[in-house]
Amino acid sequence: MLEIANLSKVYKTGDKALIEVDLSVPKGQIMGLIGPSGAGKSTLIRCINRLVEPTSGKVLLGDVDLVQLSNRSLRSQRRRIGMIFQEYSLIERLTVMENVLSGRLGYVPFWRSWTRRFPSQDIQRAYQLLDRVGLLEHCDKRADALSGGQRQRVGIARALTQGPELLLVDEPTASLDPKTSRQIMRLLTEICTERNLPAIVNIHDVPLAQQFMQRIVGLRAGKIVFDGHPKALNEETLTAIYGEEDWNPSREEAEL
Amino acid sequence: MSEISHYSQLWHHRTPRTRLLMWIGWLALIALFVWCWQLMNRETIWFFVADAPRQAADIGNRMWPPRWEYLPELLMPLWDTINIATIGTIGGVVIAVPVAFLAASNTTPSARFLRPIALFIIVTSRSINALIWALLLVAIIGPGLLAGMVAIALRSIGFVGKLLYEAIEEIDPLQVEAVTATGAGRAQIINYGIIPQIMPAFWGISVFRWDINIRESTILGLVGAGGIGLKLQGSLNTLAWGQVTVILLLILCTVVVSEWISAKLRHAII
């Protein structure tokens, strides 16, 4: 479904964020991207929908090379990629419904979005998704009136309203407590399975990644240093990803 | 205690260089004050200053009692003044909004060409007082309300434009990023990602400027741009001090009411 080949990103400051990354994600796979801060996880997923412009390489979504697109066709391709953010990135002063409908912006002409008169199928789809994430009764509240977990559910509904073929998820649980984190991750994985959606999930929390991901890719200093099943993560591979650290004792102590 | 004796007991908040510079700065300030004091003493005609209390009492006597019969004649000019301020503010805001979007570094379509032009418009408008705008406009389009409205509008562009473009530059870029990621077009990104974030600032700034414009428009009549200022000028010229008192009290009331309205509105919005 998604094929990344030779992808590099050099920032203006000369920092090499990504160095010739090759990665492919098949349909329906939920892939966790782990690595230390500054390893290029955020840059990698933002290069896919070109919120960050890649320096060189290919990003194939289906048959389309996203790197080569002009601005106009980039916009229509972005509709195929849903994105979920760390700080939810909801439009705080708009209602939940407006936030969810904003996922349709790439499909409707400007005057319709300006007057908030979205096509009836879009509205029906938005209600259906709000029901799916459990927020149907909150649809007319302002986004800033919701709790963290509820906001992230709105974020998920917004991404799904696009009718995406791929989900990019940037640290979805970094601002949430452990229980809400697990609920959100469960919702995400369930939705991906239901729709056979592939997803790339940036994640800091290794146990959480092991619990919910089907595949883990480890990124270090812009290069992929691990790619395998979550069970293959051990002291040796974690050291390869994050660097030297005593990985075991704290876990053993916790078990005692 | 003896274990840590090799650590210094001295710590300075400022480096010697900073201390020296601050000392020189204070010295320069005092020298300037002394020089200004001498200049003022030399150029003041002390006879007039000594006479001031008597003059003030004299004018005060003539200003009292207020000539209340004059009040009905002032209501139309007062209405004009309020219209000058309100319509002028609306006109200024309508022009200031696009200028602010051109001037904000995160929304300007061209940082090299359009942004400097927008900033220049803002600076020009801000650097010229409404009274001077009115003076120019009375010469160009003739005396009357229109000159007053245009003067207020021109002065408001810079004020509203500057505060608004600063508000645009301070928005949360993550919300804009999220809207961009859905495949939204440029106008849709502004509509969904930026406008909701600047709405409170927009209303706050506009109402605040309206409040200022009420005050500024009361004096525009002095240069012939209509409103209650015309009556003030007339009364001053004919030495009708009782009428001047009525006008000043009326202006005071208007300003108090406009401040109350603007405080209420801002409270309701934010």
Commentary on this structure:
With 256 residues, chain A is α/β, with parallel strands linked by helices. Chain A has a domain of 125 residues: Rossmann fold, CATH 3.40.50. In chain A, helix 5 runs antiparallel to helix 6 and helix 6 runs parallel beside helix 7. The model of chain A has no long low-confidence stretch (mean pLDDT 89). Chain B has 270 residues and is mainly alpha-helical. Helices cover 78% and strands 0% of the residues of chain B. Chain B starts with 15 loop residues before the first helix and ends with a helix. The chains are: A alpha/beta (256), B mainly alpha (270). Chains A and B meet through helix 2 and helix 4 of A and helix 7 and helix 8 of B.
Quickly describe the structure.
The complex is a heterodimer of chains A (256) and B (270). Chain A is globular.
CATH class call of the domain at 1-73 and 205-256 in chain A: Alpha Beta
For the biggest sheet of chain B, the summary is:
none
- Strand composition percent of chain A: 15-25%
Give the strand tally of chain B: 0
* Reported CATH architecture of the domain at 70-162 and 202-269 in chain B: Orthogonal Bundle
Helix segment tally of chain B: 10
**What is the third-level CATH name, the topology of the domain at 70-162 and 202-269 in chain B?**
MetI-like fold
What would you give as the CATH superfamily of the domain at 70-162 and 202-269 in chain B?
MetI-like
Distance between the termini of chain B: 57 Å
Using CB atoms under 8 Å apart, which protein chain pair has the greatest interface? Answer: A-B, 31 and 21 residues
Q: Based on helices, strands and strand pairing, what is the structural class of chain B?
A: mainly alpha
Tally the helices of chain A. Answer: 10
Shape descriptor of chain B reads flat
CATH class of the domain at 70-162 and 202-269 in chain B: Mainly Alpha
Arithmetic mean of pLDDT of chain A: 89
